[in-house]
Each structure stands twice: as structure tokens, then as C-alpha cells.
Amino acid sequence: MGGNTFGQLFRVSTWGESHGAAIGAVVDGCPPCLPLSEADIQPDLDRRRPGQSRLVSQRKESDTVRILSGVFEGKTLGTPISLLIPNEDMRPGDYREMQEKYRPSHADYTYEAKYGVRDWRGGGRTSARETAGRVAAGAIARKLLAERHGVEIVAWVGKVGRIVAECDVEKVTRAEVDRTPIRCPDLVVAERMIAAVEAARKEGNSLGGAVVCAVRGCPPGWGEPVFDRLEADLARAAMSLPASKGFEIGSGFAGTDLTGLEHNDEFYMDGDRVRTRTNRSGGVQGGISNGETIYFRVAFKPTATILRSQQTVSAGREETTIEGRGRHDPCVLPRAVPMVEAMAALVLADHALRQDAVKPR
Ligand SMILES: Cc1cc2nc3c(=O)[nH]c(=O)nc-3n(C[C@H](O)[C@H](O)[C@H](O)COP(=O)(O)O)c2cc1C
């Protein structure tokens, strides 16, 4: 039972439903004496919140975070950090039809099959609103990684529908990502993506795509073979996000088109550092970081809620139709970017602490 806690040493539990009083997280295992305030967390929540542009859900949430525990005089205590984000703009009436009918490709049917009861208001805990807690916790992990280990995490939208951007995983900055509401650093491709999402929205339809995430500055040695290989934990983290449908690291599925001769990353010496000339491994070999940039892709499906009539079944087991209502994201990709970054930060902070236990610095 459960499934709401993530991580071994840097542990995060999230709680809350979409239309309940609040949403939040408890972080246990964050080391003491890390300078921390709400101002370190709020910018990540601001990138995740709805209502940022016409490309995303119009729900109006300020997503203002409060730290309730675990911080004293501006520094972490090493005790549990409790994070609270009140829900402000609830309209449960928009979702009354879902009390009776299962939304196609959403989680109404499966939650009912599992628990025999569900909070149908805005999807309850199946809503992407749950990820506010993860993003808040991820901001703490990100700060720990940046300040104590020099690790930087940047994600962006690399694909919307069939429109693909090829960006340099070594160079993309967060400022470049945030230049457009679609969060694709290639401005020309971004314009095409925006037009595609707006067209889908006007048709009451939705689009999927992929987020690319780069982790730079990770030292060699992080990852715990065999079951907690770094890429296995990253995949688990990414696939725990709502609407995620695929994970690839390094050359991924495309790498299977190459021969070993074409695919191998040859080693060389860069001063006193062991480096690889190419990075098809995506910075991980044998489940352990090799010091190169870790990069991976996460596929997200087209949003389930569409403003079109589709066939479904009611809780009373009758065939019927349903048309999407309520505020929804015509494309989840722009808001998925901070979520993918947060999940990557949680995995890496956990492995940083685990590596300190194996081989103290
Ligand atoms: C950023 C983000 C925003 C989302 N917004 C919506 C939404 O507005 N409407 C919707 O039906 N699903 C939305 N989802 C997806 C649902 O939460 C998800 O499809 C649902 O929980 C079922 O899980 P599954 O798709 O992983 O099977 C969103 C997902 C993400 C990552």
C-alpha cells in the first residue's frame, strides 16, 4: 500500500488532491545547514503553475509555498521539511459528469477499480496538481546539488506532436528555455510548436511530445548497481509523472540503428580527467555516472481531456459518451519541463547522499 514516497536517503512524500484544501510534500533526509527559504522554491513552482499562457490550463493558482518545518534561521535543520501549497481556484462543479463517467485515457476507471472510491473533483490525486509538491521538493534537491556538488539541471521541450527541435545538451540554458511559453530553446521551431498547440486547442483537441533533460557537472561515480542504476532510477522518476509514456537515455532507441564501432564512446585524457569523445551513453555506464553530461528524453502523451465527444462507460456500467469540460492543458509539455527537472534533481540528490555514504569526499 502507498506509493507516495520516493527516494532512499533524500526522501519525498507528496500528499493532496486537486480540489482539496491544499497540496504539499514532506522532505526527509535533506542535510542540515543548507540555506533555504520560500524564495528558493517559488520560482520553480511559478514555472509549473497553470495560467502562465494560452498554451496551458487557465486554472488560476498562485501556488504560494510555505515552509512549515525543518528550517530555522534560514538554514535546514536536518529534520523533516514540510511544504504547504494551498489550493485556491477550485470549481468542482465542472467535473460532476466525471462522478458518473470515466474519462477516456484518464485514471477514473483505474482509481475506482483499485480503491472502490475516488475524488472526482478535478481528477483528485490523478491531476497534475499533485506534482506541485514534487516540484517544491525538487527545488530543495536542486539547491543542494548546485551548492554542494556543482550539478546543474536544465530541461526543455524537444518535441510537440511531430515537430522536433535539435538542441545542444551541453549548452542550453534555462533563460533560453523560458524565452517562449512553449519552453523550446530553438526559437524558429518554438513558433511552429506554439502554432500547432493553438490550432489543437481551437479544435478542442490536444497534442503530446517529449521533454529533453540535461544534467551537467555530475561527478563520476553516482548510481547504485544493480537495481538502483542511475538510469533505472531516472526512468522510474520520469515514468512516475502523469501522462509520461516513454524514457530514453543517451542514444536511446535511435542507437539501435548503429553498429558497435559507430556507437562506442572512445575514451581520452583531458588533463587529468578521463573523458569520452562522444556521449552516446548519455553520461551513464554500468548504471554509474561517468562525468559526462547525463541527458535523457521523456515522452508525454496528448492530454486525455479534449473538448470532443468520445465513447465511454459509466460507473453503472452503461455505454455512453463524454465531452471534456473544465480547465485543461491542450499540451502538457511546457508545464512538464519543471516537473522533469524536479524528478531528476530528486534522483541525483538521493544518489549524491548515497555516494557520500560509499566514498566520503
Ligand atoms: C503538466 C501536466 C498537465 C496535465 N494536465 C492535464 C489536463 O489538463 N487534463 C488531463 O486530462 N490530463 C492532464 N494531465 C495528465 C493526467 O494527469 C494523466 O493523464 C492522468 O493522471 C492519467 O495518467 P496517465 O496518463 O499517466 O495514464 C497533465 C499531465 C501533466 C504532466
Short summary:
This protein has 361 residues and is an alpha+beta fold. 28% of the residues lie in helices and 22% in strands. It has helices at residues 38-48, 97-100, 108-115, 131-149, 174-177, 187-202, 230-239, 260-263, 333-358; strands at 5-6, 11-16, 22-28, 66-67, 71-72, 75-76, 81-86, 152-160, 163-164, 209-216, 244-249, 267-270, 273-276, 284-285, 288-289, 294-300, 309-313, 319-323.
Question: How would you describe this structure in keywords?
Answer:
single chain, 361 residues, alpha+beta, Chorismate synthase, AroC fold, 5-stranded antiparallel sheet, 18 strands, globular, binds flavin mononucleotide
Q: In words, what does this structure look like?
A:
- With 361 residues, the chain is of the alpha+beta class.
- It has one domain: Chorismate synthase, AroC fold (4-Layer Sandwich), CATH 3.60.150.
- It is 28% helix and 22% strand.
- A five-stranded antiparallel beta sheet has the order 1-2-3-7-4, with helices on one face.
- Helix 1 (38-48) packs across helix 9, helix 4 crosses helix 9 and helix 7 runs antiparallel to helix 9.
- Bound molecules: flavin mononucleotide (FMN).
- The site of flavin mononucleotide (FMN) has 19 residues, from helix 9.
Tell me the structural class: alpha+beta
Average pLDDT works out at: 96
CATH architecture: 4-Layer Sandwich
CATH class group? Alpha Beta
Low-confidence stretches: none
Spell out the CATH superfamily: Chorismate synthase AroC
* Range of strand content: 15-25%
Cross-sheet strand order for the largest sheet: 1-2-3-7-4
Q: Enumerate the distinct ligands.
A: flavin mononucleotide
Largest sheet: 5 strands, antiparallel
Total of helices: 9
How many whole angstroms does the radius of gyration measure?
21 Å
What is the tally of beta strands?
A: 18
